[in-house]
Here is the input.
Amino acid sequence: MPGAARADDGTATQVRGGEPAVLMSGIRKSFGGVPVLRGVDFDLARGEVHALAGGNGAGKSTLMKVLQGVHPADEGTIAVDGRRVEISSIHDARAAGIGMVFQEFSLVPSLTVAQNIFLGAEPLRRSRLIDDRAAVAAAGAVLEEMGVDVDPRAVVGDLSTAYRQLTEIAKALAQDARVLIMDEPTASLARQESEALFALIRRLAARGIAVVYISHRMEEVYRIADRITVLRDGTRLLTRPLSEITPEQIVEGIVGKALDGQPVHRQVDGAGLGAVLLQAHAVHAPPKVRDVSFTLHAGEVIGLAGLMGSGRSELARALFGIDEVTSGEISVRGRRADLSSPRKAIAAGLALIPEDRREQGLVLEHSVADNLLLPVLGELRRGPLLHARRARERSADLIRRFAVKVADPARPVSLLSGGNQQKVVLAKWMGTDPDVLILDEPTAGIDIGTKNEIVTMIRTLAAAGKGVIVISSEYPELLAVSDRVLIIRDGTIAGEYSREQIADEEFLELAVQGATS
Amino acid sequence: MSTTAVRRATATDAVRHRLDWRRYVIYIGFVVVFAFFAVLLRDEGFLSPNNLLNIFRQTATITVIAVGMTFVIACAQIDLSVGSVAGLASVCAAMAIAQHGVVVGVLAGLLVGAVIGALNGALVSLLGIPSFLVTLGMLGVAAGLAQWITASAPQPILDDTFNLVFGGGDVGPVPGLLVWSLLFVAAGSIVLRRTRFGRQVLATGGNRTAARFTGVSTRRITFTVMLLSGLVASVAGMLYAGRLESGRFQWGAGDELSAIAAVILGGTSLFGGAGSVVGTLTGALLIGLINNGLILAGLDSSQQQVVRGVIIILAVALARKK
Ligand SMILES: Nc1ncnc2c1ncn2[C@@H]1O[C@H](COP(=O)(O)OP(=O)(O)OP(=O)(O)O)[C@@H](O)[C@H]1O
Ligand SMILES: [Mg+2]
Here is the structure.
């Protein structure tokens, strides 16, 4: 049965000829009795970029962790280059030439970029001692090939999420794997870096390396992948060359019903603008943010667009009192506000959903319900005790609205899939009902069905008189959600466009690169 | 390649280089305290070579234990049993020397450390019991055993070779204890900084999941680290025995706290992932320095405790990040 290609499969044997680089057959995997993979077949040709798609919790990461030896399969077989292999540990996978970029990263914050890239495979001198200088040089070479300028001696804990992502990719590349698995590698990258990564992936594929590319971004999939496999609820729905399938069909497969592939652009009703909610005047927050002035009205959504490292996140952090504002003025509802700490910012009615949500937004060992209810515990009190029924209802409601896929809300949040953890953080903060909501990359890692939902929810919040600031590297969404887009460059506002002024994504792209201003 | 140029310009400052004077606060503190005592206690003979060597002698055992503890804490574990392991090793070595001679005695001492270290390691890494609890229990077990098998009596060691090698003797002008502690510091520093094992200890302590995803056997690393800590503590126990020419259950009592203080003062992160053996040595010496200075200054032991505690808190507070 394995290898016997079905007609609609477009199996590797038909596409390229020769043995497939990887052939997984009948893979089953359960966690604590809950089946996550229910007999999945997957094949990968040499030199192919194979997209793997599916909703949050469909089992994409788990399938690839089976191949990488992190979670050995309960049942099923794996063949690499036509030969049956037993993959029961990461060492087995590495020996078979398989490397992986993990969705949740495999980096040690206290070590440097170079130390992380070569962790467990450090270059040794003849004395068996680690040759750190060689490691730094080799890491520099890998980063150079990626077109990224990060100091290999920088400590990973000091890097922004995007640079950690690039380090994680470099770590997998440095293994010289013949099969490279990339689990949402662009989730926290801006356009420029994604472009560089695509070029790199193409070069790798041309060299005969097989690439598995997991992503929730349809346009990326069409740009770089040859074939796509869609998983739903732990089963394979289809595998097909991208030339033979439309985006609508893919989205329908992922979501289970017809839906627009991209979030829809909502016509903005300019009349709905209310009073001034938040005003920044000549705000400086070293080392990044300088001389930023803008006004946010009730009922308005402002989008922040910019390159990686342009200072968008830093601006958000400064507004929320995480980074110190050294000069300038911020006022809330017309009154000068002291936002010198997150606590004061929250008291003034602000909320920030940060970029690295996993680290900053969740108590990983606590249950999903506990995490969801943490910011609203005060409302759920009955006397000194928690109102158990209302707490249950509240968390059930949030789980339903954000389509969090969880077997039992009492299970630790650390066991959720990456995208579902993101949803929990979003749900947690959007449930608090702040006046001004700042969202840093709100849809990173979120599946297509829920992305639209989040755009709608942001619009709903605005319609209810809230002010929202959205940072996003995904232009379709930024355009769908924003009334106004501020271009951030070198820590300051380099341009401002109302939604009507922006014709399309290309226009925005050029504006971000500074080509139009 | 104008896009590359853009990326370059914006990328370099994405790395927030912080000015790292805090990392060196222990060395600064050491120099400050030393200078302070040197001036203040000039007439009490603080600077006399004999007194300075004394400081080394008195801190040697703590230093040795703290080298092992550096690995334990860098691995995000803790070992509270080291002090009583030292005591148990000292009495076992002493009793075995009396019966079977020096070689068996040394092996018996090491065996004590290896067995208890392995037990700690197995309970922590295989059964997943927090090391705090495991070693807290083991602290009692080892201390109780040492008192029990000796009926609380000191076990004299009459073997001169043992007493000479383990702490009593000198190498030229240098006290043997100093040689021992420098040996452990040098070895520990190289292993932690320059070997794959050391790197994997830091990775396990810094991010267990990441280490596992990278193929590091975090269980094996944790086990090994706990084993080493026990083994090193047993060597410290024999250094007590050699210097004081007897094995006693009291030797090493309370040393776990001094060792932990030395490690944290030395800049090893209590949450794991980062550590420095040379820092640990400096931390141990700083504590020794303070003890010595306070004694020379004529403070009684209760006053010493207070001042020592305040200085330790102050140093750790200064070294804290952000
Ligand atoms: N270690 C684990 N223990 C228990 N359940 C797990 C574990 N890992 C994954 N799961 C469950 O398996 C299911 C599939 O998870 P997986 O991470 O493979 O999803 P995914 O398709 O990668 O989703 P996403 O798009 O959100 O990354 C989820 O419901 C998740 O809760
Ligand atoms: Mg995933």
Q: What stands out?
A: The radius of gyration of chain B is 21 Å. The first helix of chain B runs from residue 2 to 11.
